[in-house]
Write a structure and sequence with these properties.
This protein has helices at residues 3-8, 12-22, 27-38, 47-61, 67-81, 90-102, 131-142, 148-163, 180-192, 198-207, 213-220, 231-237. The protein has 244 residues and is an all-alpha fold. Helix 3 (27-38) runs parallel beside helix 7 (131-142) and helix 3 packs antiparallel against helix 8 (148-163).
């Protein structure tokens, strides 16, 4: 893998497969990636239970979710799925499978609610393997065929937002960058989800002596959707992007 390929490839499955095999990404990052895969198909979920699980996946990524409460929400979602027996509900099956996998623990194969045999096993080959791949593929199938290319593009953007160039080269957070102002801005943006303040953070970083173009450019980028788990915020806040 080269940085050029990492940035240019439209194939999120290929990028994710390489990341999982070669870079041992941190589970927290994989939770946030799984969440980003699920958000675009949230409209296919039962209004109450589905949204509740999505909210809890985000808290799960940061280690603040109660396991009992999350398990209860997932069981309620499974109960909703049990009433879907018609062909037209197939995209909803995929969306719910994506969410269930995103909220599962690694290797929890029985977390997924397998569909009736009338749907055909060939459409559910993703029910095996690392859970982030299950999530990304299930979310892909939850889109209408004409929307699936954009779904893949969205997953690629999520990988870039969460990992940036870090899987290809190290970027160190210099201690001098972490002024009181930078710390307060980074923590506030993260806690409140106020990503519109990232350009202000870039200015504060420059004032602190940061000249790293990757960091500054990402903070000032207006064409990407910044989310919790953003690689620059995590770098400043000390969240690791990989295990070990």
């Amino acid at each position: 893998m080269t940085e050029e390929k990492w940035l240019a490839s439209p194939d999120s499955a290929w990028l994710l497969d390489w990341l999982l095999k070669e870079r041992r990404p941190h589970p927290r990052k994989l939770r946030f990636f799984s969440l980003r895969c699920c958000v675009p198909v949230a409209h296919r979920l039962p209004e109450v239970h589905g949204e509740r699980v999505l909210e809890q996946i985000e808290r799960q990524a940061d280690g603040t979710e109660d396991a009992v409460r999350l398990d209860r929400a997932r069981r309620e979602l499974l109960r909703d799925m049990g009433s879907w027996t018609t062909q037209r509900n197939r995209p909803r099956w995929h969306a719910c499978n994506a969410v269930l996998a995103a909220s599962s623990v690694p290797g929890e194969a029985d977390a997924l609610h397998r569909p009736a045999t009338e749907y055909g096993n060939d459409r559910f080959r993703y029910l095996a393997g690392p859970y982030p791949k299950i999530v990304s593929e299930a979310a892909f199938y939850a889109h209408e065929p004409g929307d699936r290319a954009e779904a893949l593009a969205g997953q690629v953007r999520a990988l870039h937002e969460l990992f940036g160039p870090l899987p290809l080269r190290d970027i160190d957070c210099e201690p001098a960058w972490l002024t009181d102002t930078v710390r307060a801005l980074a923590r506030g943006i993260y806690d409140r989800g106020d990503f519109g303040a990232l350009p202000i953070l870039a200015d504060a970083l420059q004032d602190a002596g940061c000249e790293n173009e990757d960091v500054l450019t990402h903070c000032r980028a207006t064409e990407c959707e910044h989310v919790r788990g953003c690689w620059v915020l995590d770098l400043l806040l000390g969240h690791p992007w990989r295990e070990g």
